[in-house]
Specification:
By secondary structure, the protein is α/β, with parallel strands linked by helices. The protein has a single domain, classed as 3-Layer(aba) Sandwich (Rossmann fold). Helices cover 41% and strands 14% of the residues. It has a 5-stranded parallel sheet with strand order 3-2-1-4-5, sandwiched between helices. Strand 1, helix 1 and strand 2 form a beta-alpha-beta unit.
């Protein structure tokens, strides 16, 4: 057994985007037992996101669980309570009684469900159901998108395998990704 390995299971919410893909790398590098979860909640780019998530899972050799929520109507752009839904489905999908659910939310967004306060409140919900045995971790919660991009490049995250439907807010990313997409 690797002396650096953790016995802790981590389920990463994996959309196939830069943030969640970098989350997979983050935990793999720390030798956690990583699996990933892709949730198709009928978002407009689900097929592209699912393909990118599978490519990332294959690259990092992690199992990819898939959940499909049918008959949901999802607007383009901001989706109210999206991260609450994703974290709830992740808790339901846990294949073990303890561990970490990881989400790639970060600083610099106006969305309430990308905040430390949101993470704390969702942890309270998790604690109701798990008596504290499953923890929500958002390793990039205080990082900007540029910080994640820089980290991903330093760690050789295969950004060419990721998919983002919103390149406009990724100023350092947009030029590079547009040339590779």
């Amino acid at each position: 057994m690797n002396p650096n390995s953790h016995s802790t299971n981590v389920l990463v919410l994996l959309s196939g985007g830069i943030d969640s893909s970098t989350c997979v790398e983050y935990y793999k590098k720390k030798h956690y037992k990583v699996s990933a979860l892709f949730i198709d909640y009928n978002q407009p780019n689900a097929a592209k996101e699912r393909a990118a998530a599978q490519d990332i899972a294959n690259h990092y050799d992690v199992p990819l669980l898939r959940v499909t929520l049918s008959n949901s109507k999802v607007p383009e752009g901001y989706v109210p309570a999206r991260n609450a839904l994703l974290l709830s489905v992740a808790l339901m999908s846990m294949e073990c009684e303890s561990g970490i659910v990881a989400i790639g939310i970060h600083a610099g967004t106006p969305y309430v469900d990308c905040s430390l306060d949101f993470q704390r409140k969702m942890q309270d919900v998790y604690d109701l159901y798990t008596n504290g045995s499953v923890r929500i971790d958002a390793p990039f919660i205080q990082w900007t998108k540029s910080d994640i991009w820089d980290y991903a490049q330093m760690q050789n995250v295969p950004l060419n395998l990721t998919y983002s439907n919103n390149l406009s807010d990724l100023h350092p990313v947009s030029q590079t990704l547009r040339s590779t997409l």
